[in-house]
Amino acid sequence: MKIGDMVIRKVRDLPDFRMKSAVEQRDRLGHGLILSKQMSGSNPIHPCVSVYYPKTGEIYDIAESLIEVISESR
User: Fold this and answer.
1) What is the pLDDT averaged over residues 49-55?
2) Residue 36 lies in a domain
3) Degrees (nearest 5) of the Cα angle 32, 61, 5?
4) How sure is the predictor about 16, in pLDDT bands with cuts at 50, 70 and 90?
5) In this predicted structure, what is the pLDDT of residue 64?
6) Count of alpha carbons within 13 angstroms of residue 51, beta-carbon side
7) Global pTM?
8) What pLDDT score does 46 carry?
9) Confidence class of residue 60 from pLDDT cuts 50, 70 and 90?
10) Are 28 and 37 in contact (CB under 8 A)?
11) What total of structural domains would you count in the chain?
């Protein structure tokens, strides 16, 4: 996963209690573009990315493990 990759919220292989919010986020936000990568979060710190979602015009930080690449940048 790298800056410039197109991503979408992962909904496969999630526990049932996380599925509803993951599906809602995927529908509401659509695909996004990775703007930056950083280590953040709390206990433990983990790899995260900042993603721009053109459908809503918003930028969100999200754990790398919660998104999947749908198109790699060059």
Assistant:
1) 97
2) yes
3) 35
4) confident
5) 95
6) 28
7) 0.89
8) 95
9) very high
10) no
11) 1
Q: What is the pLDDT of residue 41?
A: 84
- Amino acid code (one letter) for 20: K
State which amino acid sits at residue 56. T
Question: Residue 1: inside a domain, yes or no?
Answer: no
- Two structure tokens written together for 16: 């049932």
Taking the C-alpha atoms of residue 7 and residue 33, their distance in angstroms, rounded to an integer, is: 6
Q: Which residues lie closer than 8 Å to 48 by C-beta, 6 or more apart?
A: 37, 38, 39, 40, 41, 61, 62, 63, 64
Asked if residue 42 belongs to a domain, the reply is yes
Residue 26 neighbours by CB under 8 Å, 6+ apart: 8, 9, 11
Domain residue limits at 59 = 6-71
CA–CA distance, 2 with 18 (Å, rounded to integer): 25
Residue 35 lies in a domain: yes
* Cross-sheet strand order for the sheet of 32-40: 58-63, 46-53, 32-40, 6-9, 67-71
